[in-house]
Structures are given as structure tokens and as C-alpha cells.
Amino acid sequence: MRQSAAELVQGVPPSPTGPLARPAYRLCTRCIMDTSAEGITFDAGGRCRFCRLHDALEREYPTGPHGEAKLAALLARIRRQGRGRAHDCVLGLSGGRDSTYMLYLAVREWGLRPLAVHFNDGFDNPVAGENIKKAVDRLGVPLRTITSDWRESKDIRIAFLRASTPTLETGTDLGIFAALYGAAAREGLRYVLTAHSFRTEGIAPLTWTYVDGRYLDAVHRRFGAVRRRGWRPLDPGFNLGLRHLAYYILVRGIRALTPMYYVDYVRKRAEPLIAAELGWQNPGAHYFDDLYQSLLWHVHRVKFGIDKRRFNYSALVRSGQLGRAEALERIGRLYSLEDPKFIGLCIKRLGLTESELGQILAAPPRSFRDYPNDLRVLSLLRPLVWLASRLQLVPLATYDKFFHCG
Ligand SMILES: [Zn+2]
Description:
Blueprint: H1 49-60, H2 64-81, E1 89-92, H3 97-109, E2 114-120, H4 126-139, E3 143-147, H5 150-163, H6 170-187, E4 191-193, H7 206-209, H8 213-223, H9 242-251, E5 255-257, H10 267-278, H11 293-304, H12 309-318, H13 324-331, H14 340-350, H15 354-362, H16 375-380, H17 382-390, H18 398-403
Parallel strand pairs: 1-2, 1-4, 2-3, 4-5
The structure holds zinc ion (ZN).
């Protein structure tokens, strides 16, 4: 079932028998996105829709003096809101490079007083845990770790494996946002900062990482075994449907911001800086602050012909931080995250057997569209989602993620 690295090189469809294989394989002429991304389209010059989206975001969220002015205005608003309080914002911290660097900027350069919030979903990489501890100690930032209910977390992961869709991170992604909103509500804070950057991380195709609360509920109801506890505003668990979001955004006035959109974030410069200043250590690979990524990467590649490095590297190529030839060369090799030792650890921790994993890998692949979800409702509310993105009530790329990525 395993493909050799040679089969994954440029120009060869990653999974000729997979559901995402296209009769006509195409690779973007500018980045390295290809037809493994469902719904990808190309312009006359062979450039993909993700490249067009990148350029639109670049125009809308510039760096340089214009971006600096916008960021300064945003930071002033955050600091103003924090007057008379212990903190002025909640900052999501994973221990990876991006969020650690943003914490550094927030404290040392932006003059913010964040409450760092870490969501532990049961698969924390100990290296990332050390990074978090060192960073908050050296910067003098209080840390709140929110640990998910392991029975729920495990059950949700297994449910998504059985649902046979590539969206194996829906539980964790939703749990992170729910934890950040819950922490902000608990502290009476209005701003939540997350470290996403379209210039370095990129925006994933919708079918690879689709998240909404109704979708999670539907998949879990169908494939889960554990009864989940209900929503509590200050401790939401894995509940973040549209009505919960409406409560946090409209009633509590909480805004989720992505300030890194205004920062000329160059990874090669940031990494030595946080290593020297905060004792940060590379967990070994991007996203490897979460050990579950090993299993996810394996399932993605073997079953779906998906490699998430494709949108990461593509973003770096577009922002001039990685050569396209090097990106293609790198993606042609198996990713170090797909380490059999960690894959075995994930399976064991979920209580699955090798043969159950085999059944999961062999089951016919499906998409989030095969289950109840809120994309139709969001489509009806499209102008409102656009407005919420532009008013920075929700992360800036939310609208594009739902409507321009597949
Ligand atoms: Zn492209």
C-alpha cells in the first residue's frame, strides 16, 4: 500500500487510485499546489486559485509602512481594551515556531500583556511543552493550559478516522478555538490572537481541513461512542457551533485576530531569534508540536494522496522564502513526520489495533460534504461572513477559506 518516495516526485499524481486523483494531473506554474486539492482551478497562465488568493491577501494586508500603520492601530485598540485589567488579550500558544514568535513580538515589540492559552488535546510533543514553559517564563507571561477531556478527544479522533474523510484535525482545530473563546469570555477579554500567516503557512484546501461545529457533531454522533458534555460558555469543550460563535462574537464582543498578516514574517530569521531569546527548540518538523500529526500524515498520504506540506511550501514559494525547485524536491521525499514509531504510538494511544488501522485505510474515502455541516448556511450568510472577516470579528482569512479554497 505504501508508495515509494520515487512515486511521489514532481508530476506524478500522489495517489493514482485515490479519490482525489484527477484524470488530468496539473501542477501550478508558480507554486506547488496541484490537483490533489479538490476544486483547484488554474488561470490561462497555469497559476492556481491559491496563488490568486495569496495576491489578493497581499494587497489587502500589506507589510511595509502601510501594514505597520494598520498593525499599530490594531495594537492600540487592544492595549486600550486592556486598561485596568491584568491582560489585554488571549494569545494561542502551541509551542511551535509561529505562535512562539508571535508571543515574542507581542511582549517585546508590541507592548501587549497577553494571557497565553495552550490547548492540550492529549498528543502534545514534550519538546513543544518545554518551548511553552521557557517562552512564558522568559517573557513573564501567565499561561493557562486547557486540557481536553481525553475520553471525548479520543472518541472524536476515532470518529473522524471512521468517517473516512481527510479532516482528521477537525476536533483539535475546533477545540483550540473553543478554548481560546472560552478563556477570553472567562477573563472578560475582547481579543484573541492566533499566529496564522498566509505568507508562511498558507491556506489549506477546504476539503483537507474543513471545520464547523455542526459537522463535528454529525460525525461524532454517527461514529462516536462517548456522550459528550454540553456547551458551557466559559468551558466549551468541543462545542463551537454557529450559535456558540454568535454568543462569543455578538454577545461577548470577542474578536479573533491574525496580526501576523501585517508582519513581514520570515521563518529563517524568526527561528534563530526565538532560539536565542527564548531557548526555543525545533520540535523536528512543522506541526510536530502535535504528535498526532504522524498518524494524520500517514493516513493523508496513503488513503487520500494529500500532503499538507503542499500548501505550506506553496506559501513560502510565493513569499520568496523557498525556491520552487527546492519545494518540489522536498515534497518528493517522504516527510519525517511520518515516523513509524510515532504512528504506532498514536494508534496505541487511541486503543486501535494495526488491523483496525488497515480497515480505516482501506475504507472508501469520503468528503466532509457527505455529512451534515453548516457550509450551506454559511453560503446563505456569505455577505455576513465577508463582513465579519473584513471587520476582523473572525480571523481574516475565514471568508476566503470557506468560499475560495475548494
Ligand atoms: Zn499556485
